Each structure stands twice: as C-alpha cells, then as structure tokens.
Amino acid sequence: MSETVEALSRGAGLAAWRQIADALEAEIAAGKLAQGTQLPTEAALAARFGVNRHTVRRALATLAERGLIRASQGRGTFVEAAPLAYPIGRRTRFSEIVTGAGREPWGELVAQTEVTADANGAAMLGVSEGAPLLELVTVHRADGVPLSTARTWLPLPRFSGFAEAYAASGSITRALSACGVPDYTRLSTRIRARPADPAEAARLDLTPGRVVIVVSSVNVDAAGIPIQANRSAFAADRVELVVSP
C-alpha cells in the first residue's frame, strides 16, 4: 500500500471522501496544485487514495461547491484561477478588462432570437412596448474559462446584423462598431446576487446552487440613445467587481 493510501485514517470517524477533499485543498493552498492546473482523473485519484471512484467524486464535488475547482465537460477538472478584477464604470469593456489582466478574452454566441419588448425592456431601451428586439444569449471567457453568461437585447432593425458580427468577432464592442456605433458608454448598472439557475450553471461550469453576481446594465451611444440592455451572470468566485464613477 502506498504512503498516500496509508495517510487516510481508517475508522477514525472522518469519512474517506472528506479526508481526500481536505488533502487536495491543502495541496491547492500550498501551491502544489497551482491555479489553472488540471487535476488527475477520478481513476488516478482513486488509485492514489485506495478508494473507489464514487468516493473521489464526492470529494471533488465538495471542492467544487467551495469554489476551489471547476469541472469542464469534455476537458477535465481544473483548479480555479484567482478572481479577476472587473472594473464597472462609464466605459466597461470585457475584452479590454480581460486582456489587461493578461488573459485571452472571447465571447461565444449561444442563441439568438427576435422578441418583442415588454414594459421593462421598452423602458430600458426607450422603445414602444411590443417593439422588435434582438435577444442574444452569450458566454464570455478568459483563457477558455467562463466568467459570465448574458442575455442582451438590442433594438431592431438598427442592429439586425449584430448577431453575425458578434459571432465572427467574439466582441460586443466590435459588433457594435460593425453596426455603426464606434463608441458607447454605460447609462446605468444594477448589481445583485442569487443562486445560478440550471442553464447558467451549465454554461459557467458551476455546480448547481453556486452563487452568481447579476449585473443588469444599459448602454447608450454618443447621442445618448439607448442601444443595449444587458443582464450578465458572473461566476462569483471568478471575478471581483470594482465599481468606479
């Protein structure tokens, strides 16, 4: 039996999965498992600790609930990176913020549809209730790690080509520029926290019930005309929102 297996205290009143979780957490804290590092497979961990894969799975689930690791479907399980400082002010640009932190930004278009403005959407975008809007569902990543998922609404027909421009560029700013809006500013921002819904958890590689920070905002063009209403759900453990005037 290996030293690692012997390190588990059998019959000491502490479940094996808890001991495994504590051991891996200690390695993360000590830097032995660095931020962004891929963990060994469940099979490898089971062999290391001399337990079955179900026990390892429970230990990993506990670490995921604590926000220490992230399971990415089809890729494996990774140690979470340090939270990214994300300034929110008059000019908020995802790509600039992520690039400035030394990471690679990308936005993924998940879905697009044409909807009609309800009372709330009409008020935010300054259009008539029932007016046509383009609705997008997106995921925003830094070095491949999902930081946020969003629903975005833009008035039609002004932004009829926005979805295609965004899918090609992965950038809200470049897509707006392609639609004739070279610059824009933030009109309003509202922030709250809540548990991720199932769709958000899946898109953000979160375990069910993890907290997201919801940022609802409206952007305007140079003439002060509302062009975009947005509701972003940020993985709370992956960003630190910094609010500036």
UniProtKB/TrEMBL annotation:
The gene from which this protein is expressed is: phnF
The record, for PANTHER family, names:
MANNOSYL-D-GLYCERATE TRANSPORT/METABOLISM SYSTEM REPRESSOR MNGR-RELATED, MANNOSYL-D-GLYCERATE TRANSPORT_METABOLISM SYSTEM REPRESSOR MNGR-RELATED
Keywords in alphabetical order? DNA-binding, Transcription, Transcription regulation
Alphabetical list of Pfam families matching this protein:
GntR, UTRA
> Per its record, how is this protein called by name?
Phosphonate metabolism transcriptional regulator PhnF
Q: Name the SMART domains on file.
A: HTH_GNTR (SM00345), UTRA (SM00866)
Residue ranges occupied by any HTH gntR-type domain in the UniProt entry? 14-82
Could you tell me which PROSITE patterns the record lists for this protein? HTH_GNTR (PS50949)
| Organism from which the protein derives | Methylobacterium komagatae
Q: Which InterPro entries does the entry mention?
A: Bact_HTH_transcr_reg (IPR050679), Chorismate_lyase_/UTRA_dom_sf (IPR028978), CP_lyase_PhnF (IPR012702), Tscrpt_reg_HTH_GntR (IPR000524), UTRA (IPR011663), WH-like_DNA-bd_sf (IPR036388), WH_DNA-bd_sf (IPR036390)
